[in-house]
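Please describe what follows:
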Amino acid sequence: MPLVHKDIRLSYRYSLSLLAALLLSQSPAEAAGPGSLARELSTKPIYLREGAATLAPFAHVKFCMTSPDQCKSTGGAELIDMTADARDRITAINVNVNRAIRPLADPPGQEVWVVGGVAGSCHDYAVTKREQLLQAGFSSRAIRLAVAYTGDGQGHAVVVVRTNQGDMVLDNRTNAIRRWDKTDLHWIKIESSDNPRFWVSL
């Protein structure tokens, strides 16, 4: 076996002692290794990144003209505390509206957004969910319409609920409430939290 120089052995022992001291000085979460760090990061809220002001969808402009009460700000908190009760109420609204409206595409060039219809397209689901969430007492600043492209390139409208767990999506294609980055959507624009008549890019 080759000889190891005494100074090298001492340096190696010192390094080990220093490493052990550093590990002991860390909190349990820090000392637990990469797995714990990944779990901690996965629980942190993640929000859509908003850009500059942009034009509202033309169909939304018409919607606000015919139904101005649907485009008012009720003020309130910008963030919903996602308690078990809040999640249950939001999920119930998503499921009930998904079941209540029969899918029906608008004729080309004749897109109209309607609240509470028996049949309609994705935007009809979205505005109906927004109204019911507001009636349930949630703030308009936290309940916003957004438009995006689906994974197969189709234009799509949804409701985005801003919570302390991140931006959550209510989509007529699923009864599950998912965080925005866990969907197949490619985001385009969203209502301003200050004024639903104004939109910002994503």
